[in-house]
DNA sequence: ACGCACTCCGTAAACGTTTACGATACTATG
DNA sequence: CATAGTATCGTAAACGTTTACGGAGTGCGT
């Protein structure tokens, strides 16, 4: 006899079962949508669970069925990332969740501490079986994490492409496309000496961008000059530094492509200091459109994309590589480059007439 | 006899035990630093665990001892947050982790999906017992989450103070101090009509800031004018809107204090459009120093603080309210306002001579 | 009346760990 | 030598679920 007590916090499935005068097995089956349970009792169970606020204990569940219903997103909160990502991760996360939530999967973010090796951190998380699948980001040129996850047989996908030989799912921004588009545009405006920036750290996207740049130049029959590839931190300060190095060159480039939107701020400042005006004396093309670079005068030419949709794509790619969800997202191609769209500004809107 | 096989992934403590010819109880005790185990065998166990890469399964462990060794940080990735937080959370997270890691606690971030009610989301996470303790942020004026966590007897702390009657641990920026300092400074420069911005959403910090503003005015014997408290979104666009509204006022203020650094960008732009120059025609004081507002000309007067250290403080406050760690961090005061330091710029560096 | 298929539900065994308890061997003490 | 105490370890019972298995009841055809 239920005494209609106030809805106190549930202790476990056992209590819920005896509240209903049903065996715990039936309760479990009812909650999990198993077929062999009367539709009538299922309703009763669901109602009681709702009323008493019962939710299955995650530890018990995952211990039994070996699955956590959790997807982990590992992020490195290195100083550089924190200062420059411009909420990159939070935006992508929104897209990821919109897919995962459809399957009752919860996304958790796993921030690797600054003072811990990302590999060791991931190893710990994997061994603890804290998540069913992983998304990793900021992949390095040689990244042991791929092997780690593969050996542990944990499905994973990377935010950012792989350059090592290992074949695995990823989604990444189309650096190639950006480099091509930017260079096409600059060349059409008469530029021949075009510099680019590339990150100081050993991160994949730097190589990809530089490679796209090299090939685009080749396509236009322009010689590749290593002096024009400038390594700098991906920050406002880095942009300042890039400008500084450009000004030091004896044979100055007439255009520069930045790999981080933020850099434009510092670059503008340094250029202004030297009385060189972007869009008049030098052409500047930024990478990703960002709210914080919108104020720049003259307006920065850059590229726009939906990071939310990139997240959606990445989530689907990941699920398609998980046996339990493969039939829902039967992707054949699990490696995607995500397009960006040119947003023309004024920072490169001038034609080169004579040399120099 | 161990055959010196390759270190394959461990199946469980059982395998590790029979590898060592020891009972699983002893292995567990050895790994967990229990006293009643021979120092010699402990070394053997630790060595074998290291070599075979054994890490205790989290589900089994938490099921048994009812603890997860995980601290959850709930964040709402609402559009507004994403665009404006300027990596606020990632920075605070660094501070949090530096404390937690000392106690083998892992921090995970729980991003509440946009389309889910934060209360329901937290309820789910709590019921699943995914973490031992919680940190919540963006607390509302009336926030049911406090009661939820209290009833569930889950230790928690808030990033951002509480305004409801409930007594609970929090750490927050010193909005009062900022309002006081800003107004003192402005009044010293001769200003009497001073406007402030406050968030459009029902978030606590808005009320705190407005209240500090009101009291500071009172202290200087300046009448409070509700028309000078302008609600706007905490973004660049919001700043533009604030400027717009200020310009519309018949009796224009001579100074304005912004609650988000980003707003300064939009405000500057709108002011410039109206040929009103910050630092000459109107005094502008920003709130938190931010890399992305550094470029502003004239330089924005604002306030600096270490979000990392705020995270450290918050972590210690949380731990002090957890029975297991209380003896390590015996805090008496679990509600802290975190100081900010004035960074004088040019945006308010003029003295008012005559009225208007 | 009998067997069979089907629906629904209870029972109990897992999942991997920690830990209370008791057992054993050894040492010190009387 | 008997006894108590100590150090070390093995045993088994939990923790809260899910799920394979089997049993009870029902309906139906022969």
Tell me the β content of chain A. Answer: 15-25%
Please identify which CATH superfamily of the largest domain in chain A we are dealing with.
Response regulator
Order of neighbouring strands in the sheet with most strands of chain A? 2-1-3-4-5-11
Total beta strand runs of chain A: 12
CATH first level of the largest domain in chain A: Alpha Beta
Shape of chain A: elongated
Oligomer: homodimer
CATH-scheme architecture of the largest domain in chain A: 3-Layer(aba) Sandwich
Calculate Rg of chain A over CA atoms. 26 Å
Please give the count of helices of chain A.
13
The interface involving the most residues is between:
A-B, 57 and 57 residues
Low-pLDDT stretches of chain A are 1-9
Q: What is the SS-derived class of chain A? A: alpha/beta
In words, what does this structure look like?
The structure is a homodimer of 356-residue chains. The first copy, chain A, is an alpha/beta fold and 356 residues long. Chain A folds into three domains: 13-56, Orthogonal Bundle (434 Repressor (Amino-terminal Domain)); 70-168 and 307-338, Rossmann fold (3-Layer(aba) Sandwich); 175-305, Response regulator (Rossmann fold), CATH 3.40.50. Helices cover 40% and strands 16% of the residues of chain A. The first copy, chain A, has 13 helices and twelve strands. The first copy, chain A, has helices spanning 13-20, 24-31, 39-52, 58-65, 79-84, 88-100, 118-127, 145-151, 175-188, 204-219, 236-248, 263-273, 307-320; strands at 70-76, 106-112, 133-137, 156-159, 170-173, 194-199, 229-232, 255-257, 283-288, 301-304, 335-338, 341-343. Chain A has a six-stranded parallel β-sheet. In chain A, helix 1 (13-20) crosses helix 2, helix 9 (175-188) runs parallel beside helix 10 and helix 11 (236-248) packs across helix 12. Chain A starts with 12 loop residues before the first helix and ends in a 13-residue tail after the last strand. Mean pLDDT of chain A is 88; it is low at 1-9. At the A-B interface, helix 4, helix 5, helix 6, strand 2 and helix 7 of A face helix 4, helix 5, helix 6, strand 2 and helix 7 of B. Chain A binds a DNA duplex (30 and 30 nucleotides) through residues 11-14, 22-26, 28-29, 32, 34, 36-38, 41, 56-66.
């Amino acid at each position: 006899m239920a005494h209609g007590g106030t809805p106190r916090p549930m202790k476990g499935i056992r209590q819920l079962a005896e509240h209903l005068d049903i065996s715990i097995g039936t309760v479990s089956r009812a909650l999990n949508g198993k077929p062999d349970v009367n539709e009538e009792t299922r309703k009763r169970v669901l109602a009681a669970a709702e009323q008493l606020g019962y939710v299955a204990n995650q530890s018990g569940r995952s211990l039994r069925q070996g699955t956590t219903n959790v997807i982990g997103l590992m992020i490195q909160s290195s100083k550089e990332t924190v200062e420059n990502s411009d909420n990159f991760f939070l935006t992508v996360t929104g897209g990821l969740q919109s897919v995962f939530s459809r399957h009752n999967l919860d996304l958790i973010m796993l921030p690797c501490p600054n003072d811990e090796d990302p590999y060791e951190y991931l190893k710990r998380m994997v061994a603890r079986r804290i998540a069913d699948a992983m998304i990793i980001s900021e992949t390095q040129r040689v990244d042991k994490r791929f092997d780690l996850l593969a050996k542990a047989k944990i499905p994973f996908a990377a935010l950012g492409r792989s350059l090592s030989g290992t074949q695995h799912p990823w989604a990444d921004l189309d650096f190639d496309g950006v480099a091509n588009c930017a260079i096409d545009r600059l060349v059409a405006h008469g530029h021949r000496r075009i510099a680019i920036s590339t990150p100081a750290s050993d991160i994949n996207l730097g190589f990809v961008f530089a490679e796209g740049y090299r090939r685009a130049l080749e396509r236009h029959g322009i010689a590749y000059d290593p002096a024009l590839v400038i390594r700098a931190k991906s920050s406002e300060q880095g942009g300042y530094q890039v400008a500084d190095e450009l000004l030091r060159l004896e044979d100055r480039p007439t255009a520069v492509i930045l790999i981080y939107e933020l850099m434009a701020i510092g670059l503008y400042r340094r250029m202004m200091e030297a009385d060189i005006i972007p869009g008049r004396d030098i052409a500047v093309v930024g990478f990703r459109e960002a709210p914080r670079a919108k104020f720049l005068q003259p307006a920065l030419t850059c590229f726009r994309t939906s990071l939310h949709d990139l997240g959606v794509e990445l989530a689907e790619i990941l699920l398609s590589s998980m046996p339990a969800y493969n039939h829902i997202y039967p992707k054949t191609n699990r490696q995607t480059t995500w397009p960006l769209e040119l947003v023309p500004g004024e920072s490169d809107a001038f034609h080169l007439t004579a040399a120099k």
